[in-house]
Amino acid sequence: MSTKSLMLSVRAALQTISLPSSDKSGPNSDRIGEITDVPSDTNGAERGPSGSLPSSTTPNIITSGLVENLTVSPSGVAKIILSSNRLSPLHLKELAATIEATLARVDGVARTVVAGSSRPSDDTTTATGPFEATPSDPAKGPQPPSLTAETSGSMPTPASSRRANLHANPLGLSSKRKRIEAGATGLSQTDVVIAVASGKGGVGKSTFAANLAAAMAAKGLSTGLLDADIYGPSLPTLLAAGDQLPQLKDGRIQPIKAQGILAMSIGNLIDPKKALAWRGPMVMGAVRQMINDVDWGPLDVLIVDTPPGTGDAHLTLGQMRRGTSPSDAAENTEGEDRPALDGAVIVSTPQELALADVRRGVEFFRKLSIPIFGIVENMAYFETQDGTPEYIFGQGGAEKAAQSLDVPFLGALPLLPTLREASDKGILLADETIETHFAKLAHQILASAQKKNPN
What we know:
Layout: H1 3-14, E1 67-72, E2 77-82, H2 89-103, E3 111-116, E4 124-126, H3 159-166, H4 177-181, E5 190-197, H5 205-218, E6 223-227, H6 235-238, E7 247-249, E8 252-254, E9 256-258, E10 261-265, H7 280-292, E11 299-305, H8 312-319, H9 326-330, E12 343-348, H10 352-367, E13 372-377, E14 382-383, E15 389-390, H11 397-405, E16 409-412, H12 417-425, H13 432-452
Parallel strand pairs: 2-3, 5-11, 5-12, 6-10, 6-11, 12-13, 13-16
Antiparallel strand pairs: 1-2, 4-7, 7-8, 9-10, 14-15
């Protein structure tokens, strides 16, 4: 079936759905999104000369204008934008379910995506997915402008529903290839950018990164925290910010604010129950957008929580350059052209199984000419009630690796049950012991950053 024929079939099916009772511009009905008369085969429905179904006397979501935009891709993905400022959140959610159930019976529809878009008067909007408007067609009626970051509106549905709608493109932004290729211009006002990396997963890297950022903020530094782990974002849990959805202002994503930190994570934009099945180029594009399309503003330090191993996200970060800052451009000075990353901190546990990947990680950053600020040994020991340390994963492995690799050893963090409990609750620097450890590490890392980059 051609895309045009499938579009007509989808429109025909949508015309069978009556207006919800909460629609402000149409008559009430007894049931939400009631299906007035669903044909068993919309493909074979009788059509008028223009190719559309004969108009019904019963108002429906198409004729009333409740559907602001409708597109169908060659692969059979139907995308519907609803005018959510005419519906309550509950009715919008129920209507979306009705639309999905209706289109599931249309031959050729592989998947249905329903999103909402209101048009508020202020300049702050919520990110929704960019769906291209189809060309104007007399049979289809006038089409709205394409929905991009600059024109999309807020969608007053629960956060989980919004993330489900954003899953295909969670950043909710149109293509900005020229800005991406320009480099890490979004970090031009950031003094120090530090990647927290680990050769192997499960060593506590994300917990370390979040608490390190909190320790930096506790020193009075304006601190940002970027979750570059696209497949396994942890920061929404660690910051107790899973319900926050980033807003759009003046076409740029506003980072969320939590515990004195400005943060951005893909986890705040997708349904937490769904997994992202993205290939490398999409991951790299998402990392670039979270740098350049987020309004980080002036920062003293940005901590980047990278995924385990050495992959697409690390390569993207390592190859990006900051370029000229806005102040330099305004003053017509040459400005800086330095790497996006000022340096990296490697987190590892003491056992050899983890240290083998640490060595590969250090070599990776060296190939990209990214300085190594040091290695941290996490879960180094467990302190018993009488104060005796028990070296569960071995003793001193990370320190020995640092010596052999000729990089600074920043210190050892004990295995703290209180840190694990606080992390699950989204509490950073939960007690004096944790705060003391991370304050010391923050001081050492900043000193190493100053030594590596004196300017």
